């Protein structure tokens, strides 16, 4: 069966033909095999939803087409990389990114002043940032990246500072003094 000519039945309805034409246009940049597959799947969905009867009414057809979404949305779903559609809202609240970022910044500031307080804040910022980066794919993801970077930087500085202080804290104990002897003479 040629994908360019719709089969007889519900897919032959004028609203369906217009929808498929718009979908074909929206899939214009897609590979021909991908475009044909998407159009065939949409046709099959419409056939299943409406049946093969040409007696489907306009309201019933509109309801099925609405359930599919706009042709642009269907095309974007077939290839999200070229969607150009709206950015989906983040599932992570904005305040959580701000809190992680603030925790990372405070941790970095407290590294020298209060290292014992800085250490847990660095861990919280690092872990919170990493978890947030995985969960947030929206425009606020940068907050989590920066929080993880600040937390990681604080942790590295704390480790270097600790090793430096441990090395400086070791006293070098000289051997027992050797009594000086007077030259014989």
Give the SSE map:
Elements (H helix, E strand, L loop, with lengths): L13 H13 L5 H19 L7 H11 L2 H8 L15 H20 L1 H21 L5 H29 L16
Helix pairs in contact: 1-2, 1-4, 2-3, 5-6, 5-7, 6-7
Describe the structure.
The protein has helices at about 15-25, 30-50, 60-70, 70-80, 95-115, 115-135, 140-170. The protein has two domains: about 10-80, no CATH class; about 95-170. Mean pLDDT is about 80; it is low at about 1-10 and about 80-90. Helix 5 packs antiparallel against helix 6 (about 115-135) and helix 5 (about 95-115) packs parallel to helix 7 (about 140-170). With about 180 residues, it is mostly helical. About 65% of the residues lie in helices and about 0% in strands. It has seven helices and no strands. It is rod-shaped, with a radius of gyration of 34 Å.
Radius of gyration: 34 Å
**How far from one another are the termini?**
122 Å
Give the domain tally. Answer: 2
- How many beta-strand runs? 0
Tell me the series of helices and strands, N- to C-terminal.
HHHHHHH
Mean pLDDT, to the nearest integer, reads 79
β-sheet strand percentage: under 5%
Query: How many distinct helices?
Result: 7
Helix content: 55-70%
Structural class: mainly alpha
pLDDT < 50 stretches: 1-8, 82-88
- Shape annotation: rod-shaped
Main sheet properties: none
Compact description:
This protein has 185 residues and is an all-alpha fold. It is 65% helix and 0% strand.
């Amino acid at each position: 069966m040629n994908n360019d000519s719709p089969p007889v039945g519900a897919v032959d309805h004028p609203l369906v033909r217009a929808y498929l034409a718009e979908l074909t246009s929206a899939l214009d940049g897609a590979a021909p095999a991908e475009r044909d597959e998407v159009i065939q799947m949409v046709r099959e969905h419409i056939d299943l939803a409406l049946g093969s009867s040409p007696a489907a009414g306009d309201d019933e057809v509109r309801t099925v087409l609405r359930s599919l979404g706009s042709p642009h949305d269907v095309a974007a779903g077939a290839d999200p990389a070229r969607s150009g559609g709206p950015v989906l809202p983040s599932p992570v609240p904005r305040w959580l990114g701000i809190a992680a970022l603030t925790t990372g910044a405070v941790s970095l500031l407290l590294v020298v002043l209060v290292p014992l307080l800085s250490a847990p804040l660095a861990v919280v910022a690092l872990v919170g940032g990493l978890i947030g980066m995985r969960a947030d794919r929206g425009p606020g993801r940068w907050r989590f990246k920066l929080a993880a970077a600040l937390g990681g930087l604080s942790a590295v500085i704390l480790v270097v500072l600790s090793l430096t202080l441990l090395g400086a804290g070791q006293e070098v104990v000289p051997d027992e003094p050797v009594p000086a002897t007077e030259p014989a003479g």
